Amino acid sequence: MDQLFVHIDQAIIHWAQAVLPDWMAVIVAMKIPIVAIAIFGPVTMMYLTLIERKLLARIQNRFGPNRVGKFGLLQPLADGVKMLTKEDIVPEKADKIAHLLAPILIVIPALLVFAVLPFGRNMIAVDLNIGVLFFLAMSGTTTLFIFTAAWASHNKFSLLGGMRSVAQMISYEIPFVLSVVPVLVVVGSFSTVAIVEAQPGLHWFVFTPWGAVGFFIFFICAVAEVNRTPFDLPEAESELVAGFHTEYSGMKFALFYMAEFMNVFTVSALVATVFLGGWQGPILPSWVWFLLKTYTLILIMMWFRGTFPRLRADQLMGFAWKFLLELTFVNIIVAAIWYEMRSPLNHLTAAAILIVTIIVLFQFNKTEIPKKRIYKYAYAD
Amino acid sequence: MEVLTAISKVGIYVIFGVTLLGAMMAVTLRNIFHAALSLALTLIGVAAVFFVLRAEFLGAVQILLYVGGIMILVIFTVMLTTRIGDRTIPTSNHQQWPVLIGALLLLLYFVRMIGKTPWSIKSELAVVSAVQIGKSLVSTFIFPFELTAVILVAILIGTVILAKSDEGEEKS
Fold it and tell me: For A245, A300, A362, B81, which has the most beta carbons within 10 A of its beta carbon?
């Protein structure tokens, strides 16, 4: 079971080598992971929308979609047909080219990052030796396209949403990238496969002191990077109509949604790979473990959406620059110390440094609550 | 296998062409936002060239820093221009001819230097890992590396001073 998909891949390549000329067999071998990802990505997105709607409905004591098919399982397909047949409205003053390009381009980085995710043992499209860096670089370009969409719409709500998105992404990109550095220091490689292999069995990085802190920073920044609640200021419904995609309808809107949900999946998958041991785990096949961890993180993100109120803009910025960034810097040094010291002592030292840092940062970030005023002369006693 | 070589060759030339086209558009387009987007296209094209030449680390860093960082700052500056609504802000100025002469001289210099450099020609592309790059940065090239760090710190201090002096004026 563990190597099920690898065997299928091998079988197709063998068949291609027997039937087709050499150069076509090579192309077929190259195309298999591409086709698999091109199908897997959008299908995941379709059903993530259903899961999210169902889960949010349950949190709010409703049923959610339950009319189309059993448990509403055909709802994503119905939505797809609806989106395709909707009228495509382009505002008169909009920048036509940029308005068209933005939703198309935003899907490209979302699909590309699937290539470096290890879905299981030997199940990776390309084992780039800079895997993690490639992922971070690609997901960073999303901002550009969100901003293009916002600018091209020629709409004040869109522009405000775009501005917020850029400010937020720039701020959270820094702790997002730096919180992976401890793992790179310890593993000594950018390759996602090497990172997973460095966490055999249950020796996941999240169980080390620096790993636990890194995991929290990375996950919080990941939620911010994909613009989800409580960091969804770029598309805050109650303030900005719909933010950067106000002027999009039909399939273009669906493409934004597709990019967002595929980013949710890939980012959760990366968090699982880097800190939760990827496909490592006892008994179950490797890809089951991987999907289990990824979906747990996705469900936590949806749980966030169901429970947390949205942050204020200054709280958002303050949290990134005054708390997360400092903690990441300390975390890098702590990981180096942990790596150099002997076994029982290093855990204690690392944990002690981190706890002290967190307490100090909390003290510095305390919001000033003015003393309760006592009005001496206001009341007649 | 010849078919594959031919396809990859065509692909490489397409990347070169798109990169050059993006660069041309970045300086000629009249709409400042479109020019910024073409600049992004150029930078992505350069990253693609790095990827083709097996310099994956450079390619990824190029995208991370230039497309993810500097392009966003450029667009931020575009946002802060006053006439954002106007579709045609000319990007050319009155120094086209001196600039052309300067660019031609630079091109001449580059061609001479490329001709002079003894390039090592190998049948296989040497793959340089990030670890090697890191080690050479802190050993052989430690001086330029530290110099860059000093310049960056100087820039940071400069921005802090600029921001501070503004605050002082407001108070007085």
Answer: A245
Among A173, A231, A257, A130, smallest CA distance to B129 is for: A130
Poorest-pLDDT segment among A178-192, A316-330, A360-374, B113-127: B113-127
Query: What residues 358-377 of chain A have any CB closer than 8 A to a CB of chain B?
Result: none
The model's pLDDT over A147-195, given as tens digits with 9 standing for 90+, comes to 888 888 877 788 888 888 888 888 888 888 888 888 888 888 888 888 8
**Cβ-defined contact of B57 to A133 (cutoff 8 Å):** yes
Chain A nearest-CA distance from B130, in A, is 8
Q: Do A23 and B76 touch (CB under 8 A)?
A: no
Q: Kindly indicate whether the domain formed by B1-85 is annotated with CATH number 3.30.300.30.
A: no
SS3 (DSSP) at A123: strand
Q: Where are the domains of chain B?
A: 1-85, 129-172
**Tell me, what's the pLDDT at B171?**
47
- Phi/psi for A310 (5° steps) reads -70, 145
**Contact flag B57-A138 (C-beta cutoff 8 Å):** no
Rg (CA), chain A: 23
Q: Nearest-CA neighbor of A218 among A153, A297, A149?
A: A297
How far is the alpha carbon of A96 from chain B, nearest alpha carbon, in Å? Answer: 12
Q: How far apart are CA B140 and CA B94, in angstroms?
A: 44
Please report the pLDDT score of residue B106 as a whole number. 93
In this predicted structure, the answer to whether residue A324 has a pLDDT above a threshold of 70 is: yes
Write down the mean pLDDT value for chain B.
81
pLDDT at B113 over 70: yes
CA distance B3 to chain A (A): 7
Of A144, A163, A169, the CB nearest to B79: A163
Note the ipTM here. Answer: 0.76
Going from the C-alpha of A245 to that of each of A52, A56, A150, A154, A260, the distances in angstroms are: 20, 22, 7, 11, 12
A186 vs A136, A211, A274, A303, A353, CA distance in Å? Answer: 19, 10, 12, 32, 18
Helix then strand count (H, E) for chain B reads 7, 0
